[in-house]
Design goal:
Number of helices: 0
Largest sheet: 7 strands, mixed
Helix content: under 10%
Order of helices and strands: EEEEEEEEEEE
Number of strands: 11
Strand content: over 45%
Structural class: mainly beta
Radius of gyration: 14 Å
Distance between the termini: 40 Å
Oligomer: single chain
Length: 118
């Protein structure tokens, strides 16, 4: 099996920064695309940022120039550096990854809470 574990969430004031991590473990031959999603209370889950195995990244417009996605393939870990945080960034942040073992499947983490106070 494959496990994705997020960490790094917490409470921060508006304008502050947080760095989220997503560590993959288990039966893994290769990790393809990885992504961060978030879900605010009463809202649908939304895609925040994606990164390919080669490091190409994309962002939703609301976080461009504030968030930076990266990954360390040797450590099987993805990161999300969040700067200039706003109250509207408050949400549970989830990571997912497309992983190859005996087949290729998408796995999700359990999420980490990010709360930005005004």
């Amino acid at each position: 099996q494959v496990q994705l574990v997020e960490s790094g969430g917490g409470l921060v004031q508006a304008g502050g920064s947080l760095r989220l991590s997503c560590a993959a473990s288990g039966s893994i031959l290769r990790i393809y695309d990885m992504a961060w999603h978030r879900q605010a209370p009463g809202k649908q889950r939304e895609l925040v940022a994606t990164i390919t195995s080669g490091g190409t990244s994309n962002y939703t417009n609301s976080v461009k120039d504030r968030f930076t996605i990266s990954r360390d393939n040797a450590k099987r870990t993805m990161y999300l550096q969040m700067d200039s945080l706003k109250p509207e960034d408050t949400a549970v942040y989830f990571c997912n990854a497309r992983v190859e073992n005996w087949r290729t499947s998408t796995y999700w983490g359990q999420g980490t809470q990010v709360t930005v106070s005004s």
